[in-house]
Specification:
Length: about 170
């Protein structure tokens, strides 16, 4: 079921947002431990990663956000870890998942960008990658900040279906 949803989402994203992939030939298919770090510019970001990453990762999501009614349907169909970033225990959970050989995706900014540019990047994910001896895969999402699902209202012109690059 997840594979069907992933392929359908991938098709729709390519059609609506004209998603272009760059540098995916460098994806570490055989890396046993991998932490995927991506910028967070819109509410589309998690869906884009789930649709286009070759292996469906485990997403790290803030417990406060995971409780929101509009988020629940989306996280119900993907693998995720709900963490409270205000406690150091979340790092232990993150390290355990990486050491178990799961590919984990995290937005190290911890929240949506308010400017379209990178926000402060927290050191927790880097510490987890170091402690778990994991490879890092940086993913830059470009264009999604101009979608209607970003927080750039009034700062930049938003479009219904902007071109997106990963």
């Amino acid at each position: 079921m997840r594979l069907v949803l992933q392929r359908l989402t991938r098709y729709l994203c390519r059609w609506l947002f004209r998603v272009e992939l760059r540098g995916w030939e460098h994806y570490p298919h055989h890396e046993p431990r991998l932490l995927i770090v991506a910028n967070h510019v819109s509410y589309l970001d998690g869906m884009l990663l789930a649709a286009f990453l070759p292996d469906l990762p485990v997403f790290v999501i803030n417990t406060h956000v995971a409780r929101q009614w509009w988020v629940k349907p989306f996280i119900a169909i993907t693998r995720h870890i709900s963490v409270d970033p205000t406690t150091p225990h979340y790092l232990k959970t993150l390290i355990q998942h990486i050491q178990a050989g799961e590919r984990v995706a995290v937005f190290p900014e911890g929240r949506l960008s308010l400017t379209g540019a990178l926000m402060k990047i927290y050191e927790g994910p880097a510490l987890a990658a170091d402690k778990a001896d994991a490879a890092l895969l940086p993913v830059y999402i470009e264009g999604a900040q101009y979608s209607l699902l970003s927080r750039l209202g009034g700062i930049a012109r938003r479009r219904l279906f902007p071109r997106i690059r990963l």
